[in-house]
Structure formats: structure tokens, C-alpha cells
Amino acid sequence: MKKIIFILAKLTVLMMSLQVYGLEYDPLLIRAQASIFPKIILLDKDISSKSGGDGVVIEVLHTASDVIVANKVKQLIENQYGGKLGNKKMVIKLVDFSLFNATTVATAYFVLKGESDYQSSVASHASENNRLVFSYDYRDFSNNVLMSVLMKEKTYIYLNKSAIHSYGINFQPLFYKIVKVIE
Amino acid sequence: MNKISLSVKITITFIFASLVTVLFMYVTLSEFFERYMRKVENEKVLLIAETIEPMIAINYYLGLTEESKNIAQQIMDRSQVLGGSLNMNDKVLWEKKYNEGIDHFHITYPVKDPVSADRIGSIQVSYSMESFNESVYEMRKRVIYYLAIMSVLFLVFALVIRYLLRPLSRIARQVGAYKLGESLDFSSLRLEPETRAISNAFMLMVDNVREYTALLEQYKHSVDESSIVSKMNPDGTISYVNDEFVRVCGYSHAELIGASSDLLNDSDMDQSISDEIWRTLREKQIWKGVLKNKTRSGADYYVKSTIVPLLDEAKEIVEYISIQHDITQVVEQREQILRQTTDINTGLPNRIKLSEDVKARDDLVFALLSLDNYEVIKNYYGYDSALSSIRQLSEMLQKLLVSKGIEIYKLAGGEYGLLSKNKIDIDWFQQICKFTIEKIEEFQADVDGDTIDLRASIGFTRNKKSYLSYSGLALRQAQDTRKSVIYYEDQENLIAQYENNMLWTKRIKAALADDRITLFVQPLVDVTTMQIVKYECLVRLIDEDGKYVSPFFFLDVAKKTKLYHLITRKVISLSFEVFSRVPDKEFAINLSAEDILHKETVEFLEKKIIDYQIGSRVVLEIVESEGIDSFKEVTEFINKMKALGCKIAIDDFGTGYSNFSYLMQLKVDYIKVDGSLIKDIDHNTSSQVICKTILGFSRELEMYAVAEFVHSQEVLDYVKNMGFDYLQGYHLGEPVPIHTLVQ
Hints:
The structure holds two protein chains of two kinds. Chain A is built from six helices and eight strands. Chain A has one domain: Rossmann fold (3-Layer(aba) Sandwich), CATH 3.40.50. The termini of chain A are far apart. Chain A is 44% helix and 22% strand. By secondary structure, chain A is of the alpha/beta class. In chain A, a hairpin with a 3-residue loop joins β6 (147-151) and β7. Chain B is α+β, with helices and mostly antiparallel strands. An eight-stranded mixed beta barrel of chain B has the order 17-18-20-21-22-23-24-25, surrounded by five helices. In chain B, α1 packs antiparallel against α2 and α3 (130-176) runs parallel beside α4 (193-226). Classes of the chains: A alpha/beta, B alpha+beta. The A-B interface holds A 32, 35-36, 39-40, 42-43, 86, 154-155, 157, 172, 174-175, 177-178 and B 54-55, 58-59, 61-64, 66-67, 70, 114-116.
């Protein structure tokens, strides 16, 4: 009986989580970002120097409450790319904002919703190391993240104009023709 | 074609060239512009595709498919784009259909992955050719306008050329109608500088033609006056003769024109000559040569002829022209000269010709060949037989020597001159001479069924100035020394000989004057008794120092002078005088051919025999080899002497060429076998065989045999046993002064 109650309780929590996810994250946008962000990593001309022994490492930073969304992002990326990005191995790591370690460097960072300080800390660490930082919400550009994807009547790739110089990343020129640069 | 004027030809050629040029330019320009513009239009479409492809690619790469479609759709904004499609990974993302009946370009442009550059799709664009077609039409219109203007210009240009060239036609008509003696007048023509230059050139040419024609007329006149000129048709009939021709041959113009050219031929002319002339002419070659023709009256005349075939433009013979010169007088003179320079008997060139030929030579080798027995043949067989022998010998010499580059001349009597045609090595010439002598000795002349052996000697020289005297000297020396060939080369030696002769001549003269010619006598022993029964008298000269000089040193010199006969007389006088006082002993004196042939000497001898009445004790020794050439005279002499009681001995028998029948005819009493056969007879088997034969022969003819040169006991013993009748030699008795017999 207790076991049944435990399972029911767990399902209830899960349902609640999905509800939260459903409320705060656009599943279509998450799906689009999971599809686009890894490809943008490959448009970085210096990608080879930014992929170490584990290949391309993407850290998905999230709050404790968004762990399921983060895991969903991981699943979407892994399902689409099968653990490889181009000819490189690709690893997706889920990292809680509170546990973010500034001593290690990933190839790119994908920040979900979270506190500004956390996002700024990740953005600062990434820009110092010339790493890409994607954010789920373009409005987080104020925390100095580099780019995001927005879906309106069509899909837009936003690039944070004020952060471009501090990141020092060299994209293929063509990339700049399709992104929307915003302040 | 040839009737079309130059101006028309130039105009037609120019128009044709212009049309070809215009057509070529039209085709080329059209092709060029069309290709160029098609390329431009293609580039435009490609540029469109190139422009949108990266955007499509990166959007598609990022998964922004709709954005890719939108970009592809944008190409339809261009008015010339009829339609297109976007295929990505074999899936049509976007497509715009169009009416394919419209003229259009179509291009397919690849879409590549921006990261891997792999082809991930393609863009197809169809582009209307309306603009292109309008451009091409415009371009062609302009080209046609341009070429039409050019054609008109070409036509005008051609007409101008024709106008400018028109004076040339008139010049050509005037020049074409020009006749010798007329003048050309171009004053009425419109002349440009170039046509004026041409007209002036024609005027100059006409002046030259007039001048050359006048010159040719003079040449013709000169040839007609100096030569015999005739022309013949290709079939050989005479078509023209000049006055000189008529004058020389005696026929009239009417008789000659139309007659065959053979009319004048000498009937004796070799047909091969006529054939050779016609063969040469039919081969379109010039024939040159000398012809012997007959005049109308049948007289011979000689012409030096040059016959030239005249050809038309097609190189076919139209006629022959013959230019001849009467050389009858020259030919007759040449024949006369030939007669004067030719030996009648042999047909060989004679001494006159030899003299001329030698003068013409810078360098020569000349040989004088003499038949040694010519006089004998003439005397024994007669003059005609001698001439016959000479003819036969001449033929043989010609066959032998002409091929070796030696010219043969017949000189007097039995003498020939041999002259090298070219420079010749002296040793080689000497070999030829020796070879000739050998061949002559092998040769036998056939005279009246008898065969005559010939003997000859040769002397030769390189000296042009004195070729006859020097070769004669060498010849005499050859004959004297019994050599077949002698080369007169050692002039110093000959000069020394000459000086020696002069010296000895003086000495002989002095000796005769001072009575210093004396005799030695050598005994001849009878084999059976070994007692002296005869003496041979041997002449000696006592020099101024009282020494006796052998005849070897002076007798040959004496023979070359008149002193020889004086010596003979002295020998006869002294021997007769001494032996008239030595009773019962025969004595022999030597007589040469010169003595026997010398009438005064023979008369002197006859007189002495008669005066002393000791003819039965006199033995006259004649050298075998000397008498043969004067056989008749020697025979007469012998008969005369034998009639006076003298005996005849043949001296030095076995050294010459005598055969036994010759001795039989001479009716000699003694044969004195030459010392060369006796000196080693005791051990020389050849000498023994010869001497046995001579002894057998002498017995057959009842002649006594004498052995000379018995110089040792061995020889003495041998010859005694052989059967000789008399012996003579140092072993039996050396020569001693004749006066010892009477002291």
C-alpha cells in the first residue's frame, strides 16, 4: 500500500513539474534551440581548440527546479546528434547553477532560466574563455549571454551586440547575415 | 576567262572577296555576340543562384527550412525568372512551375553544407530568353546595316578601280596592235602616274624592240653573207635557203625549196651519220659536225654545220635551221698536210708530224726504236719485203703501244719514234720499251711465205731540245753494247765519253802519224802435233811512253772516225810485210763489217794479197755478230777473198745469233769458238754440250774448229780430247810483238 502511495505521490510531483515546465518553457522553442545551438557551435572557426579530450562538451545550466527541462534538452540534443557533432564526439552535461564550477571549461554553455547572478557568472566565465553561451530567453541578454533563438512568425537567431566583442568568437561570415543583432 | 578584262577581273575578285569577307564577318560576329550574350545571361542567372545559395544553405543547415524556402521564393521577384525549385536531400522544398514553351535558360546550382561543404541540395532556376533574344536581334540588325554599308563601299571601290584601270586596256589594245616600224601614241589617254610609267615602259620597250630588230636584221644579213643558211620543215623538206647556199651547191632556189634535205648528201655518206643527225634533232638537241655534200655538178664540198631545232611554245619542233660554213679548202689543206705528215707505207705519222708534236709538248719522253736487221732484210729479201715487214711490225706496235698512251711515228728506214702522249714515269716508259723489244723479238714478219725474225734496239731521252740526237746516241750505245734499251740520262758520262773519244782520236792520229800502230801475234797450235802452225795478228797502239795499248781502248773510238780504216790498212800492211818473211806459217787478221763494207779497204787488201802472193796463208777472221746485218756484202767479200786463196774464219763463234745454215752459205774454213765457251769448259757442262754440237757441225761442213782462250792445262787437256783442230790461248802462247818473228 505504501508503495502504491509512494508511486502516486511521485506521479503527482512529476505532473506538477510538467505543469511548471509547461508553464515556463515553450516546448517548441526548446526543441528548436536543442536543434540549432549545437550547429552554431560548429560555425565557430576556432572550434577545434575548444574541444578537448572529451570532444565537444555542452554544459546545460539550470536551477534545481528545471532539471527535468535540462534533461529534456539533453535528450533532444542526443537524440538528434547521436553523441557526435560533425566528426567530433559530443557530451551533454547538466549543471546546477549553484554547483557551477568556474575552474573547468566546457565548449559551450546553454543557460536555462535562473537568477541573474548565476547567468552573469556563467557568461563572465564563458566570455573570458571565448566560449559560446546560449540562453533560452533572449531577454537574458542583459546578463551578458551571447545568443538565443526566438520563434515568432519565423525562427530568429538573436545575437547580443553588446557582448560580441567581449566573447571574441569568430563565426563564419555568412552566419552574421542570418542572425538578428539586438542590443 | 582570258577574254575578260583586267578591270572586270579585279572588280569581280574584289566583290567576291568583299562578299566572302562580309559573310564571314556576319557569321563570325553573330556567333561571337550570341555566344557572348548567352554567356552573360547565363552568368546573370548563376549570379542569382550564387547569391541565394549560401543563405539557403545556412538556414537549411540550422534547420530553418521555411527561411530557406522564403529565400528561394525571392528569386521570383526578378521579372526574367520564369520559375524554379529548391531540392534539399532529394526532397522538393520549394517549386514554382512555369510554361516550358517559353524560350528560356535553365540552370541547376548546387547547395552545399556550410560546415562540411558536402552537397546537400540544388537550386533550379529557369530564366526567360526574351531579353537575350531582343539583344541578339538588335545586334544582327546593326551588323547587317554595317555590312550593307561596307558592300556598297566595296562596290564603289571596285567601280573606281575599273575606271582607273581603263587606260590600261587602251594601252594593251595599242600595244597588241603594234607592228614593227610603227610608233605608239598614248597622248589621248588619261594617264595617272602608274599608267604613265607603264606607257613609258612600253614606249621604251618598243624602242628596244626596234633597236634589237634592226640589230637582228644586221645579224641575219651578216649570217646570210658569211654562212650557208637553210631551213627545213619537221619532215626534212627544205623551206628556205639563202643566196650563199644556192651559190655553193649550184642548185637554184626553185630546185631546192620543197626538196628533201638528202638532196645534197654524199652518196658515200655512212647511213649511221644521217641517223645520228636526225636522232639528235628529234630529241630537240643541237647537232654540230662536218658534212660532206655534193654540188649539183657532183663535186664534193665540206661544210661545218650547226643544225638547231626551233620549238614552239608547246616545245614542239616547228622547223630546223641549219647554219653552215664551207670548209672545203680547209679540209683539202688538212688532207694535204696529213699526207705530208704521214708515212705512205704504214699510215703512221712521219718525222714532220713528230717534229710538230714535239714542239707542242712542254715535257716529253721520246724513244728512237731501230730495227737492227732492217738493212739485212732489205738487201736479202728485197725492198718490197722490207716494206711489208715494216707494215706488219707497225700494226703490231700500234696494237701494243697506242693503248699505253704512246704515239708511234715512222721515221726513215727501219726506225720508229715513240712519244709519250702524257707525262710518264721514266721507269715505266723504260719498262714499256723493254716490253716492246721483247714483243718485237717474238714477232715474226711474214714475207712471201717466209717468216722473218726481227731485232730492235731502243734509245730514249727526256731532252726536248735534242730529242733525236740524244735518243740516237742512246740507241747507238744500246746497239754497241748489245743492250735492248738505253736511256740517255747520264749526260756527264756521255760528255766524258765524248771527251775520251776526242782524246783517243788525237792519240790515234798521232800514233798513225808517228807509225806507232803495231801488231802482236798469238800462236795457234795444231792439236795433233801441238806445233805452232798459225798466228793471229792483234793490233796494238804504242803510246808516247812506249807502252802497248790494247785495242779495247781505242778501236771503238777509231770506228767512229775515218781513222779506223787507216788502222786496218796499217794492220794489213804490217802483217803482210812480216809474214812475207816468215814462210810456211799462216796468219790471221781480224776484219770488221766496216772493213768489209769499206770499198777502199777491200781494194787495198786485194792489192796486198796480189802483191805479196801469200793469199794461201792469209786467214781473214770475221766476227760472227758483225757480218749478219750485211749478209750480201759479206758473202761477196768472202767469195772474192777465197778466189784469191784466202781462208775465212768466223771469230767469236757462239756469242751471236748465227745459225748453222748461215755459216754454210758463207762457206767459211775455220770456226773460232768464243773464249767464253772455252774458259771453263773443263767443268761447265753447258759449254761442253754447246762445243760438242759446234764440233759436230763443223765436221759436217768440213770446217776446222779452233778453241780460243786456252788458259790452263785442264782446259788444254779437255779441248784436246774433244776434237778441236787448233788451239789458241795464253797457256799455249801469249801475244808477242810481231817483229819478234823476224828477229
